[in-house]
Amino acid sequence: MKQVKNLAELDLHGVSYEDVSWKCHKFINNNWASKKEGHIITGNSIGMKALVFDVLKQYQIDFEESKRHNTGYIKVWFD
């Protein structure tokens, strides 16, 4: 992955589904209004992505699933 200045990253590899929500909440709250781009690394698990999307929607935060060469992460903008 290309280095991005002011990048916050949460890697969910190896995290159980039951812990995903609180880890995402913590990540968002720690980076809120930081003007950073965030990457939440989910791997290709549809279930993991769905849990992350549910949390992101609660915050009404801008995000998109990466669609190019690596679809295993979600981009988030903390504006």
Please render the helix and strand layout as text:
Blueprint (H helix, E strand, L loop, with lengths): L6 E5 L5 H15 L5 E5 L4 H14 L2 E4 L7 E5 L2
Parallel strand pairs: 1-2
Antiparallel strand pairs: 2-4, 3-4
Question: Mind explaining what this structure looks like?
Answer:
By secondary structure, the protein is an alpha+beta fold. The protein has helices spanning 17-31, 46-59, and strands spanning 7-11, 37-41, 62-65, 73-77. Strands 1-2-4-3 form a 4-stranded mixed sheet, with helices on one face. Helix 1 runs parallel beside helix 2. The longest helix is centred in the first third of the chain and has 15 residues, at 17-31. It is globular, with a radius of gyration of 12 Å. The two termini are 22 Å apart. The model has no long low-confidence stretch (mean pLDDT 91).
Question: Notable features of this structure?
Answer:
single chain, 79 residues, alpha+beta, 4-stranded mixed sheet, 4 strands, 37% helix
